[in-house]
Each structure stands twice: as structure tokens, then as C-alpha cells.
Amino acid sequence: xxxxxxxxxxxxxxxxxxxxxxxxxxxxxxxxxxxxxxxxxxxxxxxxxxxxxxxxxxxxxxxxxxxxxxxxxxxxxxxxxxxxxxxxxxxxxxxxx
Length: 97
What we know:
By secondary structure, the chain is mainly α.
């Protein structure tokens, strides 16, 4: 059996080492993952909109002017105005009887 292990190669030696000391390898892998993940801990995602443009650009000036002249409440509400039901004519049938 010892001869087979010697001929198996590097992967076999690594596998046997991991089997002998699994907690040591687990801690090592977790440490490597923590180091690789460290730069991402303070990442901030955000949408790109007109505010990223310089204040002197034409696009920004127009967008600011529209926002000032036509303010919105930005809640996604759509107002629908319809006459009262009593003033609307009754629906007609489209199919002959």
C-alpha cells in the first residue's frame, strides 16, 4: 500500500493530508476567502442617473430645468380623472339580438 501512495503523485498526497487535518485546511481556506472578500465589504451599488453628469453639461442643465419646472412626487402614482357615472351614457350592445 505504501508503494501505491508514493506512485500516486501530488494530488494523492494532498488528499491524504487534507483527510488527516481537515480543520486546518478548512481554516486556511476560510482565511484565504476572507482576504479575497475584504475589498468588497464596503462596496456601494447605485444606479447611474443624470446626477453623475457635470453641472455644466447641457444634458444636466436640461434635466435640472425640467425637474424644477415640473416637480413630481416620485411615488409612481397615476391620477385618472373620469366623469361621474351618472353623466356617462349607458353602454350599447355591439352584437345584434
